[in-house]
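Subject: UPAR/Ly6 domain-containing protein

B.,
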Amino acid sequence: MARIVIAIIAIVASFMMAEALVCKECSYGIGTVCLSSSDVTCPTAVNKTYNCFFGRLSFSKFSSLGLKSQGCRMSTECTNTTGTLLGLTYTSSISCCATDRCANAAPSTKMTLTAVIGVAALASMWSTIM
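Prediction pasted inline below.
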């Protein structure tokens, strides 16, 4: 009976090892320069998936001088739109990814390492039960 309880605890612990997503946050930037940068931890919520995002707003006549932002966003909000504002055509593109700091081209292996440790612990516990 004690082995079954330990196995259940190990399974629950392996799910709890998952850590929140960390993204680079850039509240506002011009061109390729971020004017305010920091790391931010995405919220975790039931029935909502948050991702890191990189957003860029560019105007057709000033394509090299666009506005950018980075941070956390719900995965359903990762979209591209085009429109017209004061006679200028604009494009808003928001790309999302699901690994740490991935929108900043610096992925992390934190989740992979956590998964490996969790599987190793679970295998060790499972072998003692059998």
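Confidence is low (pLDDT under 50) at residues 12-18, 105-113.

T.
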